[in-house]
Amino acid sequence: MADARINQPGDAIVVGAGWAGLSTAFHLSRQGFAVTVLEQTRQSGGRTFSFADRRSGEPLDNGEHVLLGLCGHFQQLLKAADLGSAVRFQQLLHVPVVAASADSSLGSHKLPGSLHLAGSVLRYKPLLPLERIKVLQTGLAVQMCSSADTFDDVSFADWLKDHRQSANAISVFWEAIGSGLLNAKADKVSAALALKTFRMLLSEGWNGARLGLFVRPLSEITHGFQSYLESRGVRFHFGCAVDTIEVQNSQGLSVSGPEGRWTANSVILTLPPDRLAKLVEKSGMTSTIAVPKFEFSPILNVYLFYDSKVLAQDFFLLPDDLGAMVFNRSRLLGAAKAESTTLAVSISAADDLREMPMQDISAMVEKMVRRRLRLPKAQQSRSVWQAHATFLARPGSERLRPGNRTAVDGLYLAGDWTSTGWPACLEGAVLSGHNAARETALRSERRRLRTANET
Ligand SMILES: Cc1cc2nc3c(=O)[nH]c(=O)nc-3n(C[C@H](O)[C@H](O)[C@H](O)COP(=O)(O)OP(=O)(O)OC[C@H]3O[C@@H](n4cnc5c(N)ncnc54)[C@H](O)[C@@H]3O)c2cc1C
After folding, report:
1. Cα-based angle 58, 52, 298 (whole degrees, multiple of 5)
2. Which of 26, 90, 98, 254 is most buried as measured by Cβ atoms within 10 A of its Cβ?
3. Is residue 4 pLDDT above 60, yes or no?
4. Among 393, 398, 432, which residue's Cα sits nearest to residue 412?
5. Residue 373 is inside which H or E element, if any?
6. What pLDDT digit, counting tens, does each position of 103-113 carry?
7. pLDDT of amino acid 3
């Protein structure tokens, strides 16, 4: 068993190389820390990764990811590593919508504050005219709601019903937008989290609401970012599953697993809650670190392959068809084979499909997209099911999300499920890493001052 001792002052170990871990490493290394990242798999990226399609060799992602203009922390990381062009932002939000009632769109105008969406809501055809007015009124109530956290025990669906939203408005507007942002249906998600999320979307104005579409495979981006960190001295160890953490008194903290043992002044754990709970239990720390028992919410992506060009647009929202988003991957990634098309159909909060055999799901989704977008039959399909895509933010969960500090000196938490004010997403993961790095640096500075005063 290797015993790597890294004991210079300011040293830190980051466990997990998802975007929370990468962000922690980025911010710590910027502040002069010597950082070591331990990751159990063979690559960085965590829940963002790509793989080669067996048939075509084409790189596919574990799921289409999108950003919003207001995801500033994630964009900061990409820019620092010269990867900004990996995400193409719209000039203004524009989401083409294909619904049973009529084709329509949702989008922004360059108007102040939350007015940017108002015109589009007034013309949004899946809503009846009176429903459009009520959606605008409720949008105002969302914006005015300065105490969102008091609604943590209420589901977003109940909150919307209390604000006179019809079942149709909940389905084709609030859920059509919200299930992608929150990865949960309105009846299963905390109103506190939903209100905070919609409030950000409305009040940050048109610039914040612009969609950012990934134009490079996810693994290319994470590996590019990892290389950038390595060039700044961050060390990565892959295939290292950490299963125990121990307090070493004067030496700091040590983490260990079958691959070895590492010691440092600070340790930042950036694991999903179920993995963290196991680590805490094995380390005998259950009375010190409380890890909430969150459920997970799945996301399904079905890739559809065509031998011809079948779509001229980048993406569509299908509010009546499981709230699916259809991405034209060939256009987005500028595919070499211009005469073929790969579509990615992304279904968030896909709980209702959990029991269905994968083959049936692919056939059902292919048929649904063919009928709704009037496409030819796809030649091939491939489903990617991510059962643990994000934690499920049920009513009552907001107050259970922990901050970055723990009761153990020098031990910090980060991850998309910690308390960030965001739903589980890339921006939340990266923000949590930023905050954990700040806490680590503050403690280090306090220790330095104490030592200076003592001498
Ligand atoms: C299909 C899908 C679609 C999504 N779409 C979007 C989207 O459109 N927009 C968006 O913003 N977000 C989206 N998300 C969510 C986003 O991907 C996650 O919120 C984010 O990647 C989480 O990052 P993280 O670092 O917190 O966790 P993770 O990525 O899970 O990182 C944790 C890391 O810790 C490692 N690890 C676990 N246990 C150990 C151990 N014992 N020792 C060492 N290492 C360990 C894991 O291998 C992993 O690499 C999507 C997620 C999925 C799955």
Report:
1. 110
2. 26
3. no
4. 432
5. helix 358-373
6. 999 999 999 88
7. 54
List Cα–Cα distances, 345 to 323, 364, 369, in angstroms: 10, 12, 8
Q: What percent of the chain has pLDDT over 90?
A: 88
Residue type at position 378: A
Has this prediction a pTM greater than 0.90? yes
* Cα–ligand 1 centroid distance for 19 (angstroms): 7
Compute the half-sphere exposure of residue 62: CA atoms within 13 Å on the CB side of its CA.
17
Tell me which H or E stretch contains 345: strand 341-347
User: Is pLDDT of 7 > 50?
Assistant: no
What residue ranges line ligand 1, CB within 6 angstroms?
A: 15-21, 38-41, 46-48, 62-63, 65-66, 241-242, 270-272, 275, 279, 299, 386, 389-390, 415-416, 424-427, 429
Helices (H), 237-355: 273-282, 329-332
Query: Residue type at 156?
Result: F
Q: CA dist 252 to 12, 24, 255, Å?
A: 10, 19, 10
What is the number of the ligand 1 atom nearest to the C-alpha of 348? 3
> Ligand 1 centre from 430 Cα, in Å?
11
3-class secondary structure for 159-178? HHHHCCCCHHHHHHHHHHHH
Q: Does domain 2-47+218-294+396-454 have CATH number 3.40.50.1820?
A: no
Contact 273, 292 (CB under 8 A): yes
**Does domain 296-391 sit in CATH 3.90.660.10?**
yes
Atom of ligand 1 minimally distant from the CA of 278:
41
Residue type present at position 233: G
CB 412 within 8 A of CB 25: no
Look at ligand 1, atom 53, and give the residue with the nearest C-alpha. 389
CA–centroid distance, residue 450 to ligand 1 (Å): 37
CA 425 to ligand 1 centroid distance, Å:
8
**b/e sequence 317-353, b meaning 16+ C-beta within 10 Å:** bbbbbbbbbbbbbbbbbebeeeebbbbbbbbbbbbeb
Could you state, in order of their start, the residue ranges of all structural domains in the chain? 2-47+218-294+396-454, 94-209, 296-391
- Dist. CA 156–CA 142, nearest whole Å: 11
| Atom 31 of ligand 1, residue of closest alpha carbon | 18
